[in-house]
Amino acid sequence: MTKQNVVVAETKSGLAITVSVSNSSSLFSTVGHQIKPPVVTTPTAGGYIAISPNKQLLKKLETGGMNAWVESMRASSPTHIKSIPTSLSSSIQDYTSWMHHHPSALNMFEQITSASKGKQIVMFLDYDGTLSPIVEDPDRAFMSEGMRRVVKNVARYFPTAIVTGRCRDKVYSFVRLTELYYAGSHGMDIKGPSKSSKNKKVYKALVERTKSIPGAKVENNKFCVSVHFRCVDEKSWSPLADQVKSVLKEYPKLTLTQGRKVLEIRPTIKWDKGKALEFLLESLGFANRNNVLPLYIGDDRTDEDAFKVLRKRRQGFGILVSKTPKETSASYSLQEPSEVMDFLHRLVEWKKVSLQSQSRV
Ligand SMILES: [Mg+2]
């Protein structure tokens, strides 16, 4: 038997994304913003347990950090262990040690729900590899109907956001649930189900300044204000740009990006999924850390930014979706999207029961 320790860099899927926000034909000069493509590791087919090379884990094992379960397994079945090839045996040890540090969120379900006592769970979900399987063609990364149903139910009980490297419209076309928040392009592009008062001042100022320009339409989204100019005559684009610029001067913390016939005014933040998580929590009214328990489920290297934020804030739990040991700041793990579905389903059922028991009191 050969050692199954091959790591495949997934370069064809939509996860290996470079998001570039720069537009030479922009009405305004915008700063180019590039996000490094995340690398996703996948196990080789047919392997018993595929292990990615992890020096830290190996070092831990060398220095005696062996999991007690493996020790007792050895003690109780010496002949059996002896018969396992060294490579496979060390793979099991690696995996067991990793699972000891990042136990299954399904096995830790009671601990997670009891940590949410008196707090609002806010659910953050990556899309590819978390809600949908990783597929060759990123345009075909569909989620199952079962997964859609359970995510819809989760959103009934908990504020729920999809945080993805994909563009927001693309991921929305897969998920098609209006009750969720969507943070696309690693959070650079956020849209929520309802409007907030946060942007009201900017919105009012833009409405006021652009009302003399026929066709200009200002829209107050939850996290950004959009000025649509698809119905504005081209000769008025320059005066419109001047008006928008004059509003921006009053709000130096805001930045402007340009989409197709739309100008979007949003906070200046160096975006990653961690910043998106913080921004979403604050915007949803959960700036107070004592009343919220964020749960973030993701499988990407880019999700580590969000896991790190939760660790730093000592708040909530990161859950890594992975079949193989990986260096991660997540607290818990789930093996694959089907386990994510089980976890979300259990969360909904738990919430239903706890609401019923509350109403009986
Ligand atoms: Mg992913």
Automatic annotation (TrEMBL):
Pathway: Glycan biosynthesis; trehalose biosynthesis
GO terms for MF: trehalose-phosphatase activity
Keyword Transport set for record: no
Gene Ontology terms: biological process: trehalose biosynthetic process
Catalytic activities: alpha,alpha-trehalose 6-phosphate + H2O = alpha,alpha-trehalose + phosphate
Obligatory cofactor(s): a divalent metal cation
Record key words, sorted: Hydrolase
SUPFAM superfamilies: HAD-like
Protein function: Removes the phosphate from trehalose 6-phosphate to produce free trehalose.
PANTHER family noted in UniProt: TREHALOSE 6-PHOSPHATE PHOSPHATASE
Family: Belongs to the trehalose phosphatase family.
Protein name: Trehalose 6-phosphate phosphatase
Organism: Stephania japonica
